[in-house]
Design goal:
Blueprint lengths: L5 E4 L9 H14 L6 H5 L6 H9 L6 H18 L9 H10 L3 E5 L4 H11 L6 E3 L12 H10 L6 E5 L2 H9 L3 E5 L14 E3 L2 H6 L10
Parallel strand pairs: 1-2, 1-4, 2-3, 4-5, 5-6
């Protein structure tokens, strides 16, 4: 019998090639406020929500007036300049329905805001997900476990019944803190050393799909 009943999907950098776009949007939003932040520094924090990223890269609280302005501007830049041009990773649109067809409960577990997440899921071709959780469903974003725990509740699953698929160390840490195993994808731009907490690592959706039977999601 297979071990898992539920698959929790990160979306940015996992199903959609969007990590660089998010980093550029943050850099531009900070710059407009007169705060120069290197792209490389922001890029290493993509995968966190804004509540974690802003203090990490600029020492600004997301809840402060300045933080709220930057966060709103980042969303505007991302949705108008970058979102319309994003593409899914190869076979992302096949992976989710294949997982669902095999009887798994599939839930998005993303640090994105709810409105952005809806658009990203459409780009990914992931409409067959049973449900989705976003940063709006959690007190704190990854690497805190809140989003993973919210996704488990939506799936009516215990931590031992679920596996997370993500692309950043923050996905892996959030899953671990929630007691959930994690599969990692390299397509988000992180190295195998960065993703060392995963039970398996694949290049991306296409690679996992090609090796699904022998993966932790196989029937053996």
């Amino acid at each position: 019998m297979r071990r898992y009943t539920t698959v929790l999907f990160d979306v940015d950098g996992t199903l959609v090639d969007s990590n660089d776009a998010h980093a550029h949007a943050w850099v531009e939003a900070f710059a407009e406020t007169g705060i120069p932040v290197p792209f490389s520094r922001v890029r290493r924090c993509i995968g966190m929500g804004g509540d974690k990223l802003m203090p990490a890269v600029a020492g600004i609280s997301e809840d402060s007036p300045e933080g709220e302005r930057i966060s709103r501007r980042r969303a505007e830049i991302f949705k108008t300049k970058y979102l319309p041009h994003l593409k899914p990773f190869p076979d992302a649109g096949r992976l989710v329905p294949t997982i669902v067809a095999r009887g798994f409960t599939a839930v998005a577990a993303s640090s994105a805001k709810e409105d952005e997440l809806r658009a990203l899921l459409k780009i990914a071709g992931a409409e067959s997900l049973h449900s989705a959780t976003s940063s709006d469903d959690a007190e704190a974003s990854k690497p805190e476990p809140d989003i993973i725990q919210a996704a488990l509740r939506q799936a009516h699953a215990t931590p031992g019944e679920a596996v997370m698929i993500g692309d950043t160390p923050y996905d892996l840490e959030a899953a671990s803190r929630a007691g959930v195993d994690a599969i990692a994808f390299r397509c988000g731009g992180w190295t195998d050393a960065d993703l060392s907490g995963a039970i398996a690592i694949y290049d991306g959706p296409c690679d996992l799909l090609a090796r699904l039977d022998e993966s932790p999601l196989g029937d053996a």
